[in-house]
Amino acid sequence: MKALNIVTLVLLVVGGLNWGLVGAAKFDLVATIAGLEFGQTSWFSSAVYLLVGLSAVYQALTFWRQASAR
């Protein structure tokens, strides 16, 4: 379970940094890694965005479970 927490946290940090770059400099790191232009999508970028979203849900549920247990 600890490994899953670390992986999801890393994905959230990467996703947050990517959205920060999009907002500040109109630079999409995920699209660049996939070899795409800004605003284009591929199966790779869609998969990364899906994993980031699922990681956010997992981390939120984990937080709420721990907060309600206190």
Summarize the structure.
The protein is an all-alpha fold and 70 residues long. Helices cover 80% and strands 0% of the residues.
Explained architecture:
The protein is mainly alpha-helical. Helix content is 80%, strand content 0%. The protein is elongated, with a radius of gyration of 14 Å. It starts with a helix and ends with a helix.
Write the layout of secondary structure elements.
Layout (H helix, E strand, L loop, with lengths): L1 H24 L3 H5 L9 H27 L1
The gross shape turns out to be: elongated
In angstroms, what separates the terminal alpha carbons?
20 Å
Class by SSE composition: mainly alpha
**Gyration radius, rounded:** 14 Å
On the 0-100 scale, what is the average pLDDT?
Answer: 91
DSSP summary: helix tally: 3
Major β-sheet profile? none
N-to-C SSE string, H for helix and E for strand: HHH
